[in-house]
Amino acid sequence: MIPLRLIKIGNSVGAVFPKELLARMNVDAGDIVYLTETVDGVRVTPYDPEFAAHMDVAEKVMKKRRAVLRELAK
């Protein structure tokens, strides 16, 4: 487990990632990472254009078929 320090940046809050972690994730300042909610908490992953495209499609389907998904969730 790697602790991250939260710092105030204007009206927002940011996290400081150790350089060793950035190297393992193959990201650097200015890169995009994704936060994905999981059962255990939050997962941080590097930007993946293919994953982003899949998520765009999924969000469109979920928005268009909201009622169907609500019924399936019952």
Give me a quick take on this structure:
The protein is an alpha+beta fold and 74 residues long.
How many separate domains? Answer: 1
- The CATH class label is Mainly Beta
Tell me roughly what share of residues is in helical segments.
Answer: 40-55%
The structural class is alpha+beta
> Quick one: overall form?
elongated
Strand order of the largest sheet: 1-2
Strand content: 25-35%
Uncertain residue ranges: none
Which CATH-level-2 architecture? Answer: Ribbon
* Quaternary structure of the protein: single chain
How many angstroms does the end-to-end distance come to?
36 Å
Q: How many helical stretches?
A: 3
How many β-strands, per DSSP?
4
Integer average pLDDT: 90
Fold and architecture overview:
This protein has one domain: Pemi-like Protein 1, Chain: D. 42% of the residues lie in helices and 30% in strands. The protein has helices at 19-25, 49-64, 66-73, and strands at 5-9, 12-16, 33-38, 41-46. It has a two-stranded antiparallel sheet with strand order 1-2.
